[in-house]
Predict the structure of HTH cro/C1-type domain-containing protein.
Amino acid sequence: MKNHISHNIKYLCEQEKLTQNEFGQRIDVGRSVVGQWITERTLPKIDAIQRIGVEFNLSLDDFINKRLDDVERGINAFQEDSATYGNPILQDLLKSKDQQIKDKTLIIKMLEDEVTRLRGDVPSSKSRTA
């Protein structure tokens, strides 16, 4: 079964306007490692794939098994079709899914902040003395 990891890393870099170095920094790997993934010399380990999924709000299935540009085109076409036909049920569904994505992103950010605080990287506002 073909995977699309290399293509999708290139696509994410283009979409986010990231260099290989910047992409690597976001998922805690070096530029040369990202270059090896893009040129298909190596594949990312599962923990790196998981970090990419979290960082870019992607399902692992989409990231590995689908071309992200095709997925995005499909979503955009679906949104355009539902708007064209004025189907209120589909429009409500899309609004609901958009809100779920925003909620998940907020939860992930809150959890990351809490992990950082618990590691002691950032002092808690409750533990500060006056």
